[in-house]
Specification:
Largest sheet: 7 strands, mixed
CATH superfamily of the largest domain: Type I PLP-dependent aspartate aminotransferase-like (Major domain)
Structural class: alpha/beta
Number of strands: 17
Strand order of the largest sheet: 4-12-11-10-7-5-6
CATH class of the largest domain: Alpha Beta
CATH topology of the largest domain: Aspartate Aminotransferase, domain 2
Shape: globular
Helix content: 25-40%
CATH architecture of the largest domain: 3-Layer(aba) Sandwich
Radius of gyration: 22 Å
Low-confidence stretches: none
Mean pLDDT: 95
Number of helices: 14
Number of domains: 3
Length: 428
């Protein structure tokens, strides 16, 4: 690991949590240079919904490169882009009766958020945007302004103007309707909150701690937007692309966002980000918002193949089945270790275990890594273990990974007991 410490910036993060050198990966398994296998409950932070080195994507990519297909094309028309747009329209948008124009921006999620914020402000001729507590939308300046976590904001010296934060669903507990709270602020011309161009939200706050919005709350927020002529942006970067069981995370809520931002798994493991906007919002002048890597032909090739998972309901049914296993096992763990007061929450194949004891969740994930499981933390206090396995993970690997979490909690409790006994012996 010496070369990474010598050459790479201190900003590196995941290598500190997973201190090994990974060499190969397939499906839901990672292997390091020593040949040790790890079950992947991280999935590239939601980028690898279809697993590592998915064979149908790999075969198409190899064939495309052999044929000297364009790798870089700016926003020129290419065969790869044509096939991607056709697949996106006929497999995803048309069956869901969604009419969106597609904008290719820079290749990351934060690029898509920046683009969305820019277009809604331009269209509505208003500067304010409303975001929500614990929201995470990226780490470039505009996206960071609508991100709630102080860890990312405090020393960035960003311009915090033109963004107002409102409480997310459940922020004050189950008895306070924060959609009504939002409505009251917009109704009152003396509330200090300017009428926004848009509201931006995640239907499940992933980095924020696996906070799941109720469908009724999403409907109510959408209605507030309609009543006040405000646009609704859904950030589906991490919890879209099938993560909740349907392709878009908002489908089951029955809402129709004005703008949807997608990245991560839309590229099939390769960099790609897109903004979907209702046609009337597409008011750009040619070249008004550009980027050298807007569109990625290799990602188009991979994504076109992987979108075939949505030709029928097989994947959705598989996600529901796996969710049943995940939910049942996590509830069993909560009951088994009732003294820890663990909370479980989630939807589809994104779940979280929240530990109130400071540092305990970190100890569990470290223990799990030693036992062959890659899994990360979420939440402002890093107190939530986030379960994010590939959507296509085999049942035996899913169960094996959950068993490792169970064993890791037990090991951490045992170590804690030994520390307490040791402290008592020293006192005596």
């Amino acid at each position: 690991m010496r070369i990474f410490e010598q050459m790479e910036s201190q900003v590196r993060s995941y290598v500190r949590h997973f201190p090994t050198i990974f060499a190969t990966a397939k499906g839901a398994i990672l292997r390091d240079e020593q040949g040790k296998e790890y079950i992947d409950f991280f999935a590239g932070a939601g980028t690898l919904n279809y697993g590592h080195n998915n064979p149908i994507a790999n075969e198409a990519l190899i064939e495309y490169i052999k044929q000297d297909g364009l790798l870089h094309g700016l926003d020129k028309a290419t065969t790869a882009k044509k096939k991607f747009l056709e697949k996106l329209y006929y497999t995803i948008l048309q069956p869901r009766h969604l009419e969106y124009k597609v904008q290719f921006c820079g290749p990351t999620g934060t690029n898509a958020v920046e683009t969305a914020l820019k277009i809604v402000r331009m269209v509505k001729q208003r500067s304010n945007v409303i975001s929500f507590t614990n929201g995470f939308h990226g780490l470039t300046m505009g996206a960071m302004a609508v991100t709630g976590n102080a860890f990312y904001r405090d020393e960035a010296f960003i311009n915090r103007a033109n963004v107002a934060f409102m409480p997310y669903d459940g922020y004050f507990g189950p008895d306070i309707d924060t959609a009504f709270y939002l409505r009251k602020f917009l109704e009152d011309s003396s509330s200090g909150v300017d009428l926004p161009a848009a509201v931006i939200l995640e239907t499940v706050q992933a980095e924020g701690g696996i906070n799941v919005a109720r469908f009724q709350w999403l409907k109510d927020v959408e209605q507030v937007c309609r009543d006040f002529d405000v646009l609704l942006i859904v950030d589906d970067i991490q919890v879209g692309n099938g993560r909740t069981g349907t392709f878009f995370s908002f489908e089951e809520a029955g809402i129709n966002p004005d703008v949807v931002v997608l990245s991560k798994s839309i590229g099939g493991g390769l960099p790609l980000a897109i903004v979907l906007m209702k046609p009337e919002l597409d008011q750009w002048k040619p070249g008004e918002h550009t980027g050298t890597f807007r569109g990625n032909n290799l990602a188009f090739v991979a994504s076109t193949e992987l979108l075939s998972y949505w030709d029928n309901d097989t994947l959705s049914e598989g996600i529901r089945y796996r969710e049943g296993i995940l939910k049942e096992e996590l509830k069993r763990i909560v009951e088994k270790y009732s003294e820890l007061n663990i909370q479980v929450r989630g939807r589809g194949l994104i779940y979280g275990l929240q530990f109130p004891q400071q540092g305990f969740s970190h100890n569990v994930t470290s223990e799990a890594f030693e036992r062959g499981l890659v899994i990360e933390l979420a939440g402002a206090k890093h107190d939530v273990i986030k379960f994010l396995p590939p959507l296509v993970i085999e049942e035996n690997l899913l169960r094996d990974g959950l068993a490792i979490i169970d064993e890791s909690i037990a090991a951490c409790l045992e170590k804690k007991e030994e520390m307490i006994k040791g402290a008592l012996r020293n006192d005596n």
